[in-house]
Design brief:
alpha+beta, 27% helix, seven-stranded antiparallel β-sheet, 3 helices, Alpha-D-Glucose-1,6-Bisphosphate, Chain A, domain 4, globular
Length: 142
């Protein structure tokens, strides 16, 4: 089973400011609650240490991530791969009259029982975390 979730938010900030957060792989990773550590490998590659609270996985998982596509300041797509899952994240930015529309899409393919179920239940709250961190980074009320 594959989990697909999309959320669109209006951010009361200029596109360039929103892009500076979204284009930073570490800021994106640190906003995800199950990411316990992050290592930047350079060239758009990183390793996330992920702790999923599911019975089948009783350890931290290394997820190798890479920015696959970048079209500044409008689009970034990353792919994360590990032994337990594959995740694709997309962030699309559109300049509006007084704000920036940010569309977030995540697709998670689990390789172990419970992975998709966890993300199906929790991706909405992870989007909340991303939005909250974005607002905090930009000095905006959330």
């Amino acid at each position: 089973m594959t989990v697909r979730v999309e959320r669109v938010v209006e951010v009361p900030a200029p596109l360039a400011d929103v892009w500076s957060f979204i284009a930073d792989p570490e800021k994106r990773a640190r906003s995800i609650s199950v990411v316990t550590d992050y290592e930047d490998l350079g060239n758009g590659k990183a390793v996330w240490q992920v702790k999923l609270p599911i019975p089948v996985i009783n350890r931290t998982i290394s997820v190798e991530t890479e920015d696959r596509t970048r079209d500044p300041p409008q689009y970034v797509e990353f792919v994360g791969k590990s032994k337990v899952m594959r995740v694709v994240g997309e962030h699309t930015l559109e300049e509006q009259a007084d704000d920036t529309r940010l569309t977030n899409r995540f697709v998670v393919d689990g390789k172990l029982p419970g992975v998709e179920r966890f993300f199906k239940r929790n991706l909405e709250s992870e989007f909340d975390n991303l939005e909250r961190e974005l607002h905090e980074d930009l000095g905006l009320q959330y």
